[in-house]
Amino acid sequence: MTRTDLGGGPALGAADPGPAPVRARGDRTPAPSSPGRTGAPISRSVLLWLPVAVGILVASLLVSLTIGPAQITVAEIAGSAWHHVLSWLHGLGLGVDVPPNPLTQIRDGIVWAGRAPRLATGAFVGAGLALCGGVMQAITRNPLADPYLLGVSSGAALGAVAVLLLGLGVALPVAAFGGALLALGATLALAGIGGALTPNRTILAGIAVAQACSALVSFTIFASARGDAYREIINWLMGSLAGRTWASVTIAGIATVLIGFIVLGFGRTLDAFAFGDAAAASLGVHVTRTRWVLLTLTALLTGALVSVSGAIGFVGLVLPHVVRLLIGGRHLRLLPVAAFGGATFLIWADTAARTVFAPQEVPVGILTAAIGAPVFAWLLVRSRRAA
């Protein structure tokens, strides 16, 4: 295992002092400044990129809602959405005229009870995973870090498998989230034994906990799963957004928005972490305490996301690198753009998963891995050439 594997070495891009394996062409990331300061150039960059990212995401949502066996146009979806909004206002007692719904009852159900909650869940899950990946790569200084590095995903899988085998599918999100928290606690406790919480110790502890949970999952499936339970477990472990409801949207949305805003408040601090613990400490950052806080926040977010979508890999690993390649490594602009990019990516991955092999549906985690692996390999080769 190399030094980079352990998280203490440089990123894939040797010329980049931070965790980024690839830098934008011409990017000149300056030396870290005070974490509490906010520079005007960053604000201008965010204002330049965010509208583009938001526009692409909205357009992707609208177009994806029209794709499927039932032919529905964007105009019909917009008219139906307007009908529901005015119906809601009318229900509150406001004197508004409610136009007729351009969609029949069945087609309206296809859009607002089937496709919309599924796409919205995918958008929040993609955004949250990308956020977690960006934060993890900064605080561990490891370009291979992603939301599952701390064993959170394996812990969530263990909790989910347990309730599925017991026939308690209704409690699956709760069990997955509980398993994720227990795995996080085990990782942080193991990493903190006898010393400070360093990136190397955290990563090694996460690997140990993940392997232990994976072994328990495999043994449990081998010993107990039969028939439909086996198929359901495998489908969940591969990651799927099929059958998601507005309750799933609520869980993923609240977790992503709330923790996302908190993490953005650490943008300057994450820039300081990219230059090493000593540099961060010299700028007034309490390194150990801040790392605990950020690891806990990302693990909580990952647990919430995994509880509604299963284990979807490569989004948190690849998206921050791609966005860093385009706009550079400053986290105040990297994190929001990566979040919108992750949302857009997972929307289209899930749309392909439910349509390309219709009437069969492929778990979206298979497609994200199939797309993410070659993209990451290309980033690795490009970084080697640039070094």
Kindly, what is the distance between the CA atoms of the first and last residues, rounded to a whole number of angstroms? 21 Å
Sheet-strand content, in percent, reads: under 5%
> What's the gyration radius in Å?
22 Å
Could you give the count of β-strands?
0
Structural class: mainly alpha
Order of helices and strands: HHHHHHHHHHHHHH
Give the overall average pLDDT.
Answer: 79
Number of helices: 14
The portion of residues assigned to helices is 55-70%
Please describe the biggest sheet, giving its number of strands, its sense, and whether it closes into a barrel.
Answer: none
Low-confidence regions? 1-34, 36-41
Characterize the overall form.
Answer: globular
Classify the oligomer: single chain
What do you see in this structure?
The protein is built from 14 helices and no strands. It has helices at 40-66, 74-91, 105-140, 152-165, 172-192, 199-224, 227-238, 246-264, 267-273, 277-282, 287-309, 315-327, 331-355, 364-386. Helix 4 (152-165) packs antiparallel against helix 7 (227-238). The longest helix has 36 residues, at 105-140. The model is unreliable at 1-34 and 36-41 (pLDDT under 50).
